[in-house]
Design brief:
Elements: H1 14-44, H2 47-50, H3 55-68, E1 72-77, H4 84-92, H5 96-102, E2 104-107, E3 110-116, E4 121-128, H6 138-150, E5 156-164, H7 171-183, E6 189-194, H8 215-227, E7 234-237, E8 239-240, E9 251-252, H9 254-264, H10 267-276, H11 288-308, H12 317-334, H13 341-352, H14 356-364, H15 372-399, H16 406-429
Parallel strand pairs: 1-4, 1-5, 5-6, 6-7
Antiparallel strand pairs: 2-3, 3-4, 8-9
Length: about 425
Amino acid sequence: MPDRPQPPKPPASPEKEQTAAERSRFSRLFNETLDQLKGRFSRMGNVAKLFSVSDEQLAEILARVREELPTTEALLLGKPQAGKSSIVRGITGVSPEIIGQGFRPHTQNTQRYAYPSEELPLLVFTDTVGLGDTRRDTQELVAELVEDLNVETRRARILILTVKITDFATDTLQEIARQLRQQHPEIPCLLAITCLHDLYAPQVEDHPEYPPEFEEVQRVAQALEASFAGCYDAVVCLDFTLEEDGFTPVFYGLEALRDAIADLLPEAEARAIHELLDDGMTQQLGDLYRDVARRYILAFSVMAATMAAVPLPFATMPVLTTLQVSLVGMIGRLYGQTLSPSQAGGVVSAIAGGFLAQLVGRELIKFIPGLGSALAASWAAAYTWALGEGACVYFGDLMGGKTPDPQKIQAAMNEAFDAAKRRFRDHSMDGNDP
């Protein structure tokens, strides 16, 4: 019996055709990505080659990173002992000794400090030296600062006027601030009034709730604000002390400083500052080296997130690799180990082999519409954080005369990666970013 003719199939709906097209496109992209992966693994041979960066490649990639980094230049204006270095310490978390070693002469009257490194600066602090010295020519200093500010740059800039609350001999600082304001009104200016505890009553032994509502502190602060009227866009009261001074918290007013700076900067720079100063992003461990290293780790993690947000799979891997190699090199120097880029790359390959799957997964996830780049950024930041934690364990063992324990390093990295992934993801999606 002959087969009955089959009725024609109804035409597919537009929705089904669109779904089929999207599946086909995703399948094609996925297969292309797998082909790229196969090619990369065949050329890599082993994990170490992934982190092998020649000096020429390093210079080229560092130049690309510097072009894209949300770097902020902060010009600190104030007399000696007015709290300028304390502001740098509060923002970076780095010890006074390291900050003192990091400042380098920039011009005749200024010194410059780049954080976390000269090669990859997320923050650049320029400190005026000798301000208030009657032997110094004020106009010479102003001309020097204006010349520096006239240089075109893609970096965001901010002026921070630092005034001790008990200092009313500020005529020179006021004159400099007014002239800079006239020459560059587009650069935001923050007035930071410091050393508040100098006006506390004798019976007060610790900081009150912020802001301090002591009548004398408020009266003098208002007088200082009036004397600098027209020179600033925002004002913040601070008291950054040393642990041995006995005041808690050590960085009194740090959150107010964070918010004030963030409000004055463009979005990308503001987010970087906000993340660097967010209390939930760091945790005190009580170990000097680890505590200092964590601030560097955080800065590089912020950079990694910025770079990884580029929505092109594999386009950012060389850049992120260079960031991570540079981070390990810096942590090594902190622990007394001087490493070349190739040596730092070797350390990375030695401690990070188990994380290659996360590296690949981070790049593949960029194909997810809408969420891909955001998730990749949090993964890149978390992986960089974990790598830094692993490097601390590695170099800590070497400093203690021990052979680094791979299992201990991997355990530290796994724990740090899981915790940091949640932290960076939640921080970028909680709606509290500036």
